[in-house]
Specification:
The chain is of the alpha+beta class and 279 residues long. It has nine helices and eight strands. Helix 1 crosses helix 5 and helix 4 runs antiparallel to helix 5. Bound molecules: iron/sulfur cluster (2 copies).
Length: 279
């Protein structure tokens, strides 16, 4: 079943017309990475401490959609790598994101939502119950005094649990296809074999967090939000949701632009950076 699910996600990414720029044939995303975590993986309970007690476990997500008698079996997580062409366009930018990047953030994320819906429909056809945490009843984003902007489900933490990557100095997730991506997930009542995590610490694939080197993302940030210690989430948010949309959203034809400067022109852009010790 794991291979069946992996193949269906890859097929949808390859074939669905929504994974295409409006003015051409180029896709927003390359072939996805897919991983699985068991729903009762202790990490999901730990996230209530690490992120906040508002963060849902897979069981809570399933209960929100199907009631108390449901049993969550597994989390299916995917990473949609942003294409080289889009990454290269953003490498040339120093203050605002490129048009390709902004369109990937806006329309590519719409495709990601379509993928969430497609996978749940696909699992229903197989006789399984499932729900995308981000589309589940009661999902919400919130502003927490300790963690800043957060939501009741973190796609990146789900991907970490599903063996797809580790966290980074700039607050992203470094995967085998790098840090420039969008990710998503679905919780199901299926039992699936978990993907082994080829890491033991949360920052293992980031050069700075693993051995104190690199720091290339620090100088890429135009508002000095990436710091050797804690990321300045307020400065980042003001740039991403305030300054950038005012400056370029209309020109780029989108409402949400993203930024991604700290995810491009850096050694982890499209791969695990050279120099990281991999298990
Ligand atoms: S650019 Fe370097 S320090 Fe920044 S996230 Fe990537 S590997 Fe880590
Ligand atoms: S997303 Fe943009 S503003 Fe936020 S930390 Fe990265 S470079 Fe800075």
């Amino acid at each position: 079943m794991e291979e069946h699910i992996r193949n269906e996600i890859a097929r949808f990414v390859r074939e669905d017309p929504a994974n295409r720029f409006p003015d051409g044939e180029e896709p927003y995303f390359d072939e996805p990475l897919v991983g699985f975590a068991t729903a009762d993986d202790p990490l999901f309970s730990e996230y209530k401490t690490i992120i906040g007690d508002f963060h849902r476990t897979p069981q809570e997500v399933m209960e929100s959609a199907f009631g108390d008698s449901i049993h969550a079996g597994a989390v299916i997580s995917w990473v949609l790598p942003i294409t080289r062409q889009t990454r290269e366009s953003n490498r040339r930018e120093t203050i605002y994101p490129s048009q390709e990047w902004a369109r990937t953030r806006a329309f590519g994320e719409q495709f990601n939502t379509a993928l969430r819906k497609h996978l749940t429909a696909f699992l229903t056809e197989q006789g399984q119950r499932s729900v995308a945490p981000q589309l589940a009843p009661g999902w919400s984003s919130l502003e927490d005094p300790l963690v800043g902007i957060a939501s009741t489900w973190s796609e990146r933490h789900a991907a970490y649990a599903a063996g797809l990557g580790t966290f980074s100095l700039n607050g992203g997730l470094i995967t085998r296809r790098g840090i420039a991506h969008r990710c998503g997930s679905v919780v199901t009542d299926l039992t699936l074999t978990p993907t082994p995590r080829a890491y033991s610490t949360r920052g293992e694939w980031c050069l700075f967090l693993s051995n104190g080197s690199c720091g290339a993302c620090i100088s890429r940030c135009p508002v000095n939000a990436v710091l050797p210690g804690e990321r300045d989430k307020i400065a980042c948010r003001e740039h991403v949701y305030g300054t950038i949309p005012k400056a370029v959203a209309e020109r780029h034809g989108v409402a949400e632009t993203g930024c991604g400067l700290c995810q491009t022109k850096v050694p982890c852009e499209g791969q695990i950076p050279t120099g990281v010790k991999q298990a």
